[in-house]
Amino acid sequence: MVGNSMDSSGGPRTFADLLNEVVSISEQSLDDNDSQKKQALSCHPMKSALFEVLCEIKEKTALSIRTGSDETPEDPQLMRLDNMLIAEGVAGPDKATPLAGDASGGDQADYRAKLQQIRTVYSQELQKYEEACGEFTQHVRSLLIDQAKTRPVASKEIERMVSIIQKKFSGIQVALKQSTCEAVMILRSRFLDARRKRRNFSKQATEVLNEYFYSHLANPYPSEEAKEELARQCNITVSQVSNWFGNKRIRYKKNIAKAQEEANMYAAKKAASVHGLGGMAPGYSMLAGSSAGLMPPYPAMLPGQDLSHMGLPGGFDLTAAYNPQLMAQYQQSSMDNNESN
Questions:
Q1: Residue 47 resides in a domain
Q2: The pLDDT value given to residue 284
Q3: Is the pTM of this model over 0.70?
Q4: Which domain holds residue 223?
């Protein structure tokens, strides 16, 4: 050793001998040097005396094995996250919760595909976490077992230290599961929001609303009584009726050409119903007002629109039920008043 002042022959060591020993130590690997020191310590005649002294010091400093229970209760937050991941089909068996009872097959397939991606990423990250935690705890366990050869280390102390390390690692596990739960909730909300946006009224309800709209083009603002009747016929709420008419008026203004074709279609249907059945359908009479024969007012409200085509043959015609020559001026003033209110 470097501290010895005598060489192997019993003579005094020179400075050159010390330098050579330092160089030789630097060329040794850490494992080789460590094993040599361990071997020298285990063979030392004073090892047992050193162990007894360390035991006395441990007893005096109250570092003996704890008599109380060191078991820590399971983290409730971790339990909640585990239950949620199992319920959503991310953890445990692949039993993903259906998106909704009325979701289409395409929605279900897309949802399950996205959920499977989350499940795969979660499994991979959880495996990495478990491997890292297991590797580190095993290293600590081996280190303490090795130290127990020199200093007093009980098996219960080793397990307690491993438990402390695992508790530290549990914070990583909570963060992983928390982010996974958030990803599942975002996925579910996006699909549900997309379905809500695509959800339309029934064909029958749309027919009733469009028929009223084009029958009252001069004043497409139904009264509260009319809204209630429309809501009853369409099996929707009064608020939905109001929103539908608001959106319909906006769409009509933006796309007047397409709206004219749609108006012609509903006017033809109405005329056929009147001539073929001798009157209106039951329950609809209260919705038909005297404004049913008026021209649509929106073309006059659009800047830059040329309205001269309305009086030409083949132009804007809502069948014989409409009279553009008599009511054009009334429509303009009536619509302006309604918009200002």
A1: no
A2: 43
A3: no
A4: 203-340
